[in-house]
Amino acid sequence: MKRRNLSKTTGPAARGGSGAILTAQYVGAAAVWGASFLFIKLAVGGLSPAQVVLGRLFFGALVLAIIMVATRRRWPRGLRVWGHLAAIGAVMCVAPFLLFSWAAQYLPAGLSSIYNATTPIATMLVALAFLPSERLTRVKLLGLFVAAGGVVLVAEPWRGLVVDSGSATFFWAQMACLGGTTCYGLGFVYTRRFVRDHDYDAITVSASQIGAGAILILLLTPVIGTGTVTLTPGIVASVVVLGGVGTGLAYIWYTNVINAWGATIASTVTYLTPIGGVLLGVLILGEALRWNEIVGGTIVIIAILIGQGQLRPRRRTKALMVERQAV
């Protein structure tokens, strides 16, 4: 019996909508994900990192569960499938969210958003290590070298040479962000290897992995989430928006854009996210923007473009088109 691809037949992701709506969804996803670092920064002002992650995953799982019910999607079945989804939830949700939330206590929101932009580079490294089909081409190698230079410039490891506990904490908080993007890379590769052959669309997989992640952090919070809870309207709103919109609705918007415009164009949202994160950090939190963060962040984005082959010379392609026209 032939499997039916749900991602092409049902649900909101199947309805592309008009160009204006898709553009609004694209910009909305970029804006929400860029602002997520602002929300994290505000939330850790009254909650521990684990408590922030618990609230984020709870509201994200709630929104996606409502969408699952409203669109009459079927939840996955089988212990093996749920085992894979739980693993993805741990690697792509719980671990990176904890790392970024912990880092937010010591880093400006804008700087965290710059490190988040290294996710495609981290994904490339993990894919090269664990996927036999991936090969290290000259273009990818150049992209990795350029990205390394950008990360070093942003991280300023020379600041850690000063015997200062504050400088050391600042450095390790940056490493935590890189650890978070590495988790994303591991999660993407794991999903590609173990989940893509199952008959579940992106919304179902997302709702399941975020729900599994919510259960996992709920079990961990009594152990790692102790601490005084201070709730203000701003902190509550930050957690609700971070979870319900950033971890819930924005994923649906992004899925619609991928289906309508293709993955290559949709992936450019990665370039807009740090711009929003930096601007909000400067305008709302009054964060100082250093020259090395601007230059280093730009280098990282260039590295992504190189690694994805988007800056590759097109002489051969143009020559081939001329040759075909001549024939």
List keywords for this structure.
about 325 residues; mainly alpha; 13 helices; about 0% strand; globular; disordered N terminus
Would you kindly provide a written description of the structure presented here, covering whatever features stand out?
The protein is mainly α. α1 (19-43) packs across α11 (269-285), α2 (49-70) crosses α3 (79-104) and α8 (202-224) runs antiparallel to α9 (233-261). The protein has helices at residues 19-43, 49-70, 79-104, 109-116, 119-130, 138-155, 165-194, 202-224, 233-261, 263-266, 269-285, 291-307, 315-326.
Write the SSE topology.
Layout: H1 19-43, H2 49-70, H3 79-104, H4 109-116, H5 119-130, H6 138-155, H7 165-194, H8 202-224, H9 233-261, H10 263-266, H11 269-285, H12 291-307, H13 315-326
Give the biggest beta sheet: none
Spell the H/E element sequence. HHHHHHHHHHHHH
Q: What gap, in angstroms, lies between the N and C termini?
A: 45 Å
How much is the radius of gyration in Å?
A: 20 Å
The number of distinct β-strands equals 0
Strand content: under 5%
Low-confidence stretches: 1-16, 316-327
Helix content: over 70%
Integer average pLDDT: 81
| Global outline | globular
User: Count the helices. How many?
Assistant: 13
Helix/strand class: mainly alpha
Quick description:
This protein is mainly α. The protein is built from 13 helices and no strands.
